[in-house]
Amino acid sequence: MITLEDLKNFFEMALKPSPLVFKIGFAIVLLVPFILHLIFSATTQYTTLPSVLLIGPSGAGKTALLTLFERGPLLNPDGTSVGAADLKNPYRKPIVTSPVAQTHTSQVPTSVELAVGANEDGTPTSYKVDLDAAGATARKFLLIDTPGHPKLRGTTLQHLLNPSPSLTIIPTNAPNKKTSTDSHSDPYKSKLKAVIFLLDAAALADSDGDYLSQTASYLYDVLLSLQKRFHSRKNSRAPSSIPVLIAANKQDLFTAVPASLVKSRLEHELGRIRKTRQKGLLEASVTSEDEIRADDEEGWLGAVGSKEFKFEEMMEFDMEVEVMGGNVIGDGPGAERWWRWIGERI
């Protein structure tokens, strides 16, 4: 039977400084956090981040836009900061001390993990705001820059054809990397939430060049892939909607085409491409009229039978298409509207 004297002796021994007590306490301090880390890291599943796909022809400024959203405010070539009013914001990101990073033609997809906060009225915060300093609640997502060369577009279009909104990507800045020596080769899933098609509005002004036709041809394939994705559903439930933003970049240049004119020119060119492809299909040798009709509808962008193409036709396939102007560097509307468009759809 344990007596009061035994309890007294036990507490005196436990509270008395001794090498054994110090060793036990030191072992607990070191081992318990390590054991808890192993338990939680083995059982906790990583959250699948939503992703935004950045698509467009080569030289449109996709990598520069990704750099802008990742680093925050940049400098003009003359050394002045973009947006003097931003200096008054106590929560702004530090201005990058060099101009836009030297970019080159991308050969593999590149992604960065970004975060967008919310203002008191629910609108997305600016990409220039340091969310940690502002104490804002952030929603993380991946911005994926894809190669614009015609020979490297196949993988991008295959992603858009997938009825599932998830993408299997190998980003350069993956948030869920495994602890391995070659973490860049570890693919993971990401939910595709939106597509940004970036084009050079200044190059679009050259009526003698083929930039308009090549850009519209790529855009046609992108929209048609999303349209086929809508038709590829296996049940009555339609795939999740993927909105498309056509970003007319380089609006800081004098020769840049305004966003409204970019929209009308693209619609006219897409309509021409649609008629050309239909004509080529009808002239091809096909065994029956039913096959002609089926292939015609499959390759027809927008409402079947419409004479002039309009972006509003894509709403029939639960696809919202908008055209917005902006620029990465220089004086102009900037990239704020593009960022807010992303924040409203993440």
Automatic annotation (TrEMBL):
Stretches the record annotates as Disordered: 164-185
Q: Which Gene3D superfamilies match?
A: P-loop containing nucleotide triphosphate hydrolases
Q: Which UniProt keywords apply?
A: Endoplasmic reticulum, GTP-binding, Membrane, Metal-binding, Nucleotide-binding, Receptor, Transmembrane, Transmembrane helix
- Entry annotated with the keyword Membrane: yes
Polar residues biased stretches: 164-178
Provide the Gene Ontology terms for cellular component: endoplasmic reticulum membrane
Membrane spanning residue stretches: 20-40
Q: Where does Mg(2+) 2 bind?
A: 63, 106
Q: Which residues bind Mg(2+) 1?
A: 63
Q: How does it sit in the membrane?
A: Single-pass membrane protein
Q: Which GO terms describe its molecular function?
A: GTP binding; metal ion binding
Binding positions for GTP per the UniProt entry: 58-59, 61-64, 103, 105-106, 148, 249-250, 252, 328-329
Q: Which Pfam families match?
A: SRPRB (PF09439)
The name on file for this protein is Signal recognition particle receptor subunit beta
What is the protein's species of origin?
Chaetomium thermophilum (strain DSM 1495 / CBS 144.50 / IMI 039719)
User: Which classification does the entry list for the species?
Assistant: Eukaryota, Fungi, Dikarya, Ascomycota, Pezizomycotina
